[in-house]
Design a protein that fits this description.
Distance between the termini: 21 Å
CATH topology: Trefoil (Acidic Fibroblast Growth Factor, subunit A)
Radius of gyration: 18 Å
Mean pLDDT: 87
Number of domains: 1
Order of helices and strands: HEEEEEEEEEEEEE
CATH class: Mainly Beta
Largest sheet: 10 strands, antiparallel
Strand content: over 45%
CATH architecture: Trefoil
Bound molecules: 2-acetamido-2-deoxy-beta-D-glucopyranose
Length: 218
Amino acid sequence: MLSKHFTALAAFATGAVLAVNQTGPYHIHITGKTDKSIDGYAASYHAGAAIEALVYVSGPANGTSQEYYYDYQSYNPETGEVFQPGYIVWQLPLSGVNGTTYVPEALTIESRGNWASNVAPAMFYPGTDGGAAVRFYDDEGAGAGANHSVYLTGRDDSGYTDQRPEQGPGPLVDATNWHLCYQYVGGGGYWYQTVSWVFALPPSNPTCLPVNLALELI
Ligand SMILES: *[C@@H]1O[C@H](CO)[C@@H](O)[C@H](O)[C@H]1NC(C)=O
Ligand SMILES: *[C@@H]1O[C@H](CO)[C@@H](O)[C@H](O)[C@H]1NC(C)=O
Ligand SMILES: *[C@@H]1O[C@H](CO)[C@@H](O)[C@H](O)[C@H]1NC(C)=O
Ligand SMILES: *[C@@H]1O[C@H](CO)[C@@H](O)[C@H](O)[C@H]1NC(C)=O
């Protein structure tokens, strides 16, 4: 269950006190599930003061606006196993009198969204509170792990009845409902083909196309 990358970084971390437990940088590779012409990388595009949308750009990744990190909560110091889920983080560069500093921004699904839609864009706001819980498969082995796919972590409520389950809310599951959708973001000022989450199929926005996201270590 443990990747080379995580092992190496976790081993390094045991010798030092880190402000965050983090791996990366990564590119976010976007490939179409049905439309195979979709093959590109995510980029952070301006959508307001210190706010960015996660936008699709075709072709190879190029530059720091396409570099992301994976922050996780903890790991096992003996085995190096990383405990997921974590957050995808973009480092917003800020120019100041002392040069460039970076503000970490965790990927989140827009929660101040369009209530007439079942589509919400993936966004970055300053800080890491409120980031979407992300699991990704970085195993070197076979199966789902080999492709580094990114999932959001949630609870399957499709079996709920009107009785409160004694065992509590049930296990976390991987969900994948990533789409590319043309839409306004940032309060309406910016029109982009955004990486988006569709809460229920089919998406109300007819431009949405299903995609897979994968974290590729740079
Ligand atoms: C990468 O970005 C730089 C700066 O915007 C640009 O000059 C260069 O042509 C780009 N390279 C590719 C391969 O797109
Ligand atoms: C990083 O992981 C270690 C080991 O689980 C944990 O003790 C530490 O609190 C974590 N650090 C942060 C900043 O989360
Ligand atoms: C810039 O660096 C100087 C010297 O370290 C420090 O006194 C000053 O507060 C810094 N300014 C900002 C805006 O961080
Ligand atoms: C990666 O694996 C998942 C789970 O098996 C699968 O749904 C997805 O289509 C795969 N993605 C790619 C790009 O192969």
